[in-house]
């Protein structure tokens, strides 16, 4: 079982290699100030990304939730790892679909690798393009979050 996860991670990293370098640069420049360089988040400011997304994205609602938040942003209360956060996640729609896929794939393989399921498929630009067309509301995002917990 552990060997399969390591192999799956290897496939993700090698298949998404171009994404990883770009994703790290985008994360470091735009996300780390709130979510922290180690993805652990900041209590009262930004929820952790570390160990919170791998299982969520195995569900269709979770697979939509992650790009939806980056495209639409999110405001209000949410609970992560038992801590309530009240704040605003800005929209990052100014980034290209490729850049958004890159940063999400970086976060998944760097901070959520242990949770990724065998056969995990990295995000692709088309998923962000579809979400950009839909531009989900905060209500939809919160429903997807609840459904994927």
Keywords:
2 strands, two-stranded antiparallel sheet, single chain, 149 residues, mainly alpha, Cytochrome Bc1 Complex, Chain D, domain 2
**Sheet of most strands:** 2 strands, antiparallel
CATH domain topology: Cytochrome Bc1 Complex, Chain D, domain 2
- The CATH level-2 architecture is identified as Orthogonal Bundle
Overall mean pLDDT stands at 88
User: What class would the helix/strand composition place it in?
Assistant: mainly alpha
Low-confidence stretches: 1-21
List the helices and strands and how they pair.
Elements: H1 2-15, H2 17-30, H3 32-35, H4 60-72, E1 74-80, E2 83-89, H5 97-111, H6 125-134, H7 138-147
Antiparallel strand pairs: 1-2
Explain this structure to me?
- The protein has a single domain (2-147), classed as Cytochrome Bc1 Complex, Chain D, domain 2 (Orthogonal Bundle).
- The chain has 7 helices and 2 strands.
- It has helices at 2-15, 17-30, 32-35, 60-72, 97-111, 125-134, 138-147; strands at 74-80, 83-89.
- It has a two-stranded antiparallel ribbon.
- Helix 4 (60-72) packs across helix 6 and helix 5 crosses helix 6 (125-134).
- The protein starts with a helix and ends with a helix.
Structure summary:
The protein is mainly alpha-helical. Helix content is 54%, strand content 9%.
């Amino acid at each position: 079982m552990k060997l399969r996860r390591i192999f799956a991670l290897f496939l993700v990293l090698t298949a998404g290699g171009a994404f990883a370098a770009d994703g790290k640069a985008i994360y470091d420049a735009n996300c780390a100030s709130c979510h922290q360089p180690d993805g652990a988040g900041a209590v009262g400011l930004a929820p952790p990304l570390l160990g919170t997304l791998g299982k969520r994205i195995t569900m269709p609602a979770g697979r939509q939730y992650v790009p939806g938040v980056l495209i639409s942003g999110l405001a209000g209360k949410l609970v992560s790892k038992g801590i309530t956060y009240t704040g605003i996640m800005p929209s990052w729609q100014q980034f290209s679909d490729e850049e958004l896929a890159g940063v999400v794939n970086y976060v998944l393989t760097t901070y959520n690798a242990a949770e990724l399921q065998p056969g995990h498929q990295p995000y692709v630009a088309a998923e962000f393009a579809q979400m950009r067309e839909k531009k989900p509301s905060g209500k939809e995002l919160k429903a997807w979050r609840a459904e994927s917990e």
